[in-house]
Amino acid sequence: LWWAHFPPTRLTRPPPAAAGSGPVGPCGRRAYAPPAERKRFYQNVSISQGEGGFEINLDHRKLKTPQAKLFTVPSEALAIAVATEWDSQKDTIKFYTMHLTTLCNTALDNPTQRNKTQLIRAAVKFLETDTVCYRVEEPPALAELQKNEWDPVIAWAEKRYNVTIGSSTSILGPNIPASTKETFVSHLASYNMWALQGIEFVITQLKSLILSMSLIDRHITVEKAVLLSRLEEEYQIRRWGNVEWAHDYDLCELRARTAAGTLFVHLCSESSTVKHKLLQD
Amino acid sequence: MAALGAPLRTLRALLRELRHAAGRSYRDSPAYRHVIAAFRAHRVTSEKLCRAQQELHFQAATYLCLLRSVREHEALHREYHGKGERSPQEVAGLVGFRLPQQPGGKG
């Protein structure tokens, strides 16, 4: 295994393939992808507070991002959750299960080098192909299910944001008015850069801006959002049967990623001061 | 507001997941202590619709979903996708054959 030949402190240095050679390294691997598995090389995981925020310590070493920046997070709760991810690795470090760490790395490194406007634009663009707006006409049972499950979410979004969205059975999708898009753009602009990375991540996972906003506004749970996102799959599973190694595998992965993204957004956008209840209330 | 059920149930399930994740010294782990402290801090409130309490409960439920899904995903991965390739001996054994044993190696 090529990465095993590098000294144990590899995590504190950028991967060799990333050193200024563009997206594809010399061995043809994507430069920003970490190795799939690596032995656990640390005993203790702890948190400390530095100048930029909270840092993760693996034994005495400070955790760094894939681009060798110091790993700092603004929220203590987020740092604790990341530390828990690292601490729960047994013999091998399974990077593909460490979703919060990955999100933090993305926020710190910004490998796609997008600014806030570009992120918001990418997020709102999803509305044109939003899952809950795309309806089938047959089979009628599925069309009915989509109407019963998805119409309430669209109605909620239209009421909450005072916009018109609608749904469509045409292949071109719904016709979203420009004012609707502008409303979402200005709403998303109120989130900071970190939270936006999380929001864009959740939208990409659920394939729906409406479901993501519904989730982030705490209108539905993660399980429900994932169910609504996979509505057609659930319908087919109920009809034809469940295949554990494919369906449940995908379901668990989608739930994990969506939950991580949602938690990330909330932890990056809350204030850390505890608001004491006023007696006048 | 999302339909979350009883906060106590979420808390218990969350602590159980943290126990699975941490192992022996789970009670000393920062996550365990943080969760318990957060729930304790928000317990004393007279109002049923306390917004901060609901926010905390939602966060706890989300974190619970994350831990549970990661554990289940890993278990499924180990079960179905983690075994790698079979050796030539195993493949031959699937159809009841055995590989020939030649003194000088295979021909």
TrEMBL record, chain A:
Source taxon at top rank: Eukaryota
Keyword Chaperone: yes
GO BP terms in the entry: mitochondrial proton-transporting ATP synthase complex assembly
Subcellular location(s) per record: Mitochondrion inner membrane
Gene Ontology terms: cellular component: mitochondrial inner membrane
Family assignment from sequence similarity: Belongs to the ATP12 family.
Record protein name field: ATP synthase mitochondrial F1 complex assembly factor 2
Gene: Atpaf2
Automatic annotation (TrEMBL), chain B:
Record-linked InterPro entries: FMC1_homologue
GO cellular component terms given for this protein: mitochondrion
Composition bias type Basic and acidic residues, residue spans: 78-88
Top-rank lineage group of the source organism: Eukaryota
Coiled coil: none
Region (Disordered): 78-107
Family affiliation: Belongs to the FMC1 family.
Function as written in the Swiss-Prot or TrEMBL entry: Plays a role in the assembly/stability of the mitochondrial membrane ATP synthase (F(1)F(0) ATP synthase or Complex V).
Protein known as: Protein FMC1 homolog
Gene (UniProt): Fmc1
